[in-house]
Amino acid sequence: MENLPITRTKAQEAYLKMFKCKVKYSSGELYYFSKRELLGMFRKAGFKNEDMEIKILDYNLSATPPLVSLNTSLLSEEKKEYVQKEYNGAVKMIRKWGETSPPTILIKAIKHTK
């Protein structure tokens, strides 16, 4: 199971905007892989389409706390201003629409041997 970087609601869009800030301007997080990238990983591991059952689920779970602390001390003043604007845009969206998790992909893979 993995969240996908897609949205179906404004609340999911707000969550992804804040998460993207977190990934870009802090450490320890990777952005979500696309469905294509995830399936590519399974294929690289030897799974074929017939080995996989794929479902896209939309739980719309609250993913709080959505706010993150960004360390901008190493950035230029120009870059800090850009980062602050991006972050404030995400906060504004969360205040307006709330935030919920994006759709999740569930991949059940079973290697069939002959």
Please explain how this structure is put together:
- With 114 residues, the protein is α+β, with helices and mostly antiparallel strands.
- It has one domain.
- Helices cover 41% and strands 12% of the residues.
- It contains three helices and three strands; from the N terminus they run E-H-H-E-H-E.
- The protein has a three-stranded antiparallel beta sheet with strand order 1-3-2, with helices on one face.
- Helix 1 runs antiparallel to helix 3.
- It starts with a strand and ends in a 5-residue tail after the last strand.
Note poorly predicted spans. Answer: none
Listing every helix as H and every strand as E from the N terminus to the C terminus, the arrangement reads EHHEHE
Strand order of the largest sheet: 1-3-2
Number of strands: 3
Mean pLDDT: 89
Which percent band covers the strand fraction? Answer: 5-15%
In terms of quaternary structure, the protein is single chain
Helix content bin = 40-55%
Q: How many distinct folded domains?
A: 1
The number of helical segments is 3
| Category from helices, strands and their pairing | alpha+beta
